UniProtKB/TrEMBL annotation:
This is GDP-fucose transporter 1. PANTHER family: SOLUTE CARRIER FAMILY 35. Signal peptide: none annotated. The gene is LOC110410680. Residues 24-303 form the Sugar phosphate transporter domain. It is found in: Membrane. It is a multi-pass membrane protein. It comes from Herrania umbratica.
Length: 344
């Protein structure tokens, strides 16, 4: 009896640790990425270092048996390449958005994605029109976003151009991955490996197209003999580390708790991001802008409730229901970890 009680207590603390770890990584990641791009103003190189850390981390952990990922093959890589291109563009536009705007602006535009995904699903994938409650929640999200943009004192054409580009690419990624990538049969860590490794291979192309390589070489020449800057190194290291950690904690937390609990945790994380951003520096919205931002997040909560069906009655044992729910969560996780740097 005591052994059973000890095992349940240990499982409780293990699950709590995973949820807390995911909450910290998710809520801090956007702020850390903003800090990193502020101190290391090379978005292409920064994202390449993040891809390298994540791909190398998955490969090393796989070698030591801490996780299992699908082997990298050229045939699957060719099929995965279009999705990896969309993923790269989503992360690239996300980093440039954080470069030119504050974290609050990023969260507002990230919260707009359900609206565009609903439109895309209805228009291109012939899905049913949203219910009245879903439609109302989408209008609340849109109203909060419009109010935020209208009162944004830091509005610049460059920042909002990147914001719109990010919104289009992240929406395309969500719809495209739902439509095509899930059919490849990769497990979660396989998605992470293919996404980051293929994105790393594409990085030099964007360095040349954007001309960033000239800025990097110019900075190296100007700082000859003094290339190491402790603050920038710390910021980049944290950004890379948290990008890998959110994949681990996100995957592990989804397996440990129900899909509903994981979704609630994600919503709370956004509120934590807003609070942390307000407390640590002055790079945030006006008070009215923050109200609009919270309005948008509230619309997101209502949207999640509207698309989550009522619990189904069943005479099967609870263990079976939990296993089915976790299977669904694991399937959905494939979409989550693909956008881990933006988790957003």
């Amino acid at each position: 009896m005591s052994a059973i009680r000890f095992d349940s207590t240990r499982q409780y603390y293990a699950t709590s640790s995973l949820v807390i770890g995911y909450a910290l990584c998710s809520s801090l990641l956007a702020v850390i990425n903003k800090f990193a791009i502020t101190k290391f103003n090379y978005p292409g190189l920064l994202t390449a270092l993040q891809y390298l850390t994540s791909a190398l981390g998955v490969w090393v952990l796989g070698k030591f048996g801490f996780l299992h990922h699908d082997p990298f093959t050229l045939d699957i890589a060719k099929k995965f390449l279009p999705a990896a291109i969309v993923f790269y563009l989503a992360i690239f536009t996300n980093t440039n958005l954080l470069r030119h705007a504050n974290v609050d602006t990023f969260i507002v535009f990230r919260s707009l994605t359900p609206l565009l995904v609903a439109i895309a699903d209805t228009t291109f994938r012939r899905q049913p029109c949203p219910s009245k409650l879903t439609f109302m929640s989408l209008l609340i999200i849109l109203g909060g976003a419009v109010g935020y943009v209208a009162t944004d004192s830091n509005f610049t054409l460059t920042a909002y151009t990147w914001a719109l580009a990010y919104l289009v690419t992240i929406t395309t990624e969500m719809v495209y991955i739902k439509h095509m990538v899930m059919n490849l049969g990769l497990n979660t860590w396989g998605f992470v490996l293919y996404n980051n490794l293929l994105s790393l291979m594409m990085a030099p192309i964007f360095w040349v197209l954007t001309g960033e390589y000239r800025e990097v070489f110019a900075a190296l020449g100007a700082n000859a003999g003094n290339w190491f800057e402790p603050v920038a190194f710390t910021a980049v290291s944290l950004s890379c580390l948290f990008g890998l950690l959110i994949s681990f904690f996100g995957f592990a937390a989804r397996r440990a708790i129900s899909a509903t609990a994981f979704t609630v945790t994600g919503v709370v994380n956004k509120f934590l991001t807003v609070v942390i951003n307000v407390l640590i520096w002055d790079k945030h919205a006006t008070p009215f802008g923050l109200v609009c931002l919270l309005f948008t997040l509230a619309g997101g909560v209502l949207y999640q409730q509207s698309v989550t069906g009522p619990p189904r009655e069943s005479t099967t044992p609870k263990q079976t229901n939990d296993e089915n729910e976790n299977d669904d969560a694991e399937e959905n996780q494939g979409k989550s970890v693909l956008g881990k740097h933006a988790s957003i």
